[in-house]
UniProtKB/TrEMBL annotation, chains A, B, C:
InterPro entries to which the protein is assigned, alphabetical: Gly_transporter (IPR005115)
Taxonomic lineage from the root: Bacteria, Bacillati, Actinomycetota, Actinomycetes, Propionibacteriales
UniProt KW Cell membrane keyword: yes
Main location (coarse class): membrane
Name of the protein in question: Putative membrane protein YeiH
One GO CC term on file: plasma membrane
Length: 201, 201, 201
């Protein structure tokens, strides 16, 4: 139940990031809605296809289609004036990352993947939507260029996986995992945390 | 039966668009054939993977491989001189969009998706090949930048879905749906129909 | 058994190419690891999803995750100074192409695809990882721009398919097929073999 809400909220916030990027690229409202839909649903499609859970949840329940459309329309009408767009993208993106890595890990455990693979699938779910958004709109994917990004997703998914390995199934675990991922990512953006660069001569 | 022909014709015209983009990018004949294949088959692969119909039809029937290769070769030898390429891409692309949105919606209904989801899958099938073509060749995807594009596909798929909801299964329905999508898209290109842009200050 | 080793070696060399491209793009170590993972595992994911073998092998066996991470770390610490990166990418990429086209063809035959389709799936497996690497890092995909690339993969896959069609199942067949693909690709790079270009006026 909680997971279902997580999924829809994650789709909503990712949808907002897609729409914001569309606003920034000066797309018209339909282009913005397309970007909102693929960003919101892309990570989940990737996740469901990889575990063979087809058709993806988003194609079996109309709410999954309405949520990113609403996110796109809200953004279209209420988007900020020029200047703060990129920062908003990062914040909403961090929220989506946090929610999707948790759901992805849970779904992977449900279909019987090993702990390491479940953490990996959680990470893929988390970063998938943003990668698709950035590739379609011609940006370098945030997962490659930004401050640490896949790492917090892997940590969030890892917490879920560890708790499950110890048969500890309290309701607060997914919440805590998402919060940990979200906060680490936000601090990383704020402080400009980067991992070491390759040496050059 | 009619659908099968739709599928092959759709692959052919999408294959032509891929090859034309390859010609424009000055790729050699093998690069052109690759682009012809991924553009022709991409949307159907995406559709079949999303509904779990794997391996995709295109990998089970040799005609699905021959058709885009022929499209690529024909284009390679007969492509127009510089200048009219982009316009031809748009026209063939509109035909592919129209055919694929109809087939996608039908296939989605056959596997039991709900009407809204079937219309959505039809739209995804229609726009998929063009998105893959544009991403691979470094163009902004036509679905984002162009005059209304996903909307006619959604309408075409919607007509198929509505007819099926009313148990009306006449042979002319898919034809009419494809024609509606094709004409709206052509008029949109001609007239430069765009949806509203986000306001900026 | 041999195929399993092929798969892991292919993932390793593709992982190296991803990491080298990351080094060249001056990504930090985590960005490099992400690129190493998607390049190493991308082609196999695509292959497994297309034949419906989900979850992909790489998500069911921890070694598949460790191998590209090791490839990425080794490259991060031992990458060459500026200048020879692109050449190294090409050589390792040719090795990955050769290994993956063979494995892809074998897996396709195992799930009962026809010879032509199996050769096609082998080709897709071979070129998939490189396409994903190049699209994510904003390069024109090597399969489009480079000297003949898909053709050697199709030949390598074709040898496997032909041998199987004649029920000839000797252990050296996959090795020979991979070597043929690898050598043709290397000679093509060396000699700058290109297919004919479209005529322009």
């Amino acid at each position: 139940m909680a997971l279902h809400v997580f999924d829809l909220v994650g789709i909503f916030v990712f949808g907002i990031t897609g729409a914001l990027v569309g606003v920034r690229k000066n797309l018209d409202v339909f282009g913005i809605l397309v970007l909102s839909l693929v960003t919101g649903l892309g990570g989940g499609f990737l996740r469901d296809v990889l575990i063979g859970a087809t058709p993806p949840a988003a194609l079996q329940d109309w709410r999954y289609l309405v949520v990113p459309v609403v996110a796109g329309l809200v953004t279209f009408f209420l988007h900020p004036r020029i200047g703060r767009v990129e920062r908003l993208v990062n914040i909403f993106d961090a929220a989506g990352l946090a929610l999707f890595c948790v759901i992805g890990a849970r779904k992977a455990l449900e279909v019987g993947l090993s702990p390491l693979s479940a953490a990996m699938l959680g990470t893929i779910s988390g970063i998938g939507g943003g990668v698709i958004r950035d590739v379609l709109s011609g940006r370098v994917p945030v997962v490659l260029r930004s401050e640490i990004y896949a790492t917090p997703a892997f940590l969030g998914a890892g917490i879920v996986v560890l708790a499950s390995a110890f048969d500890y199934d309290a309701l607060w675990v997914p919440f805590a995992a998402a919060v940990v991922c979200f906060l680490i990512r936000l601090v990383a953006i704020r402080r400009g945390w980067n991992a070491p660069l390759p040496r050059t001569t």
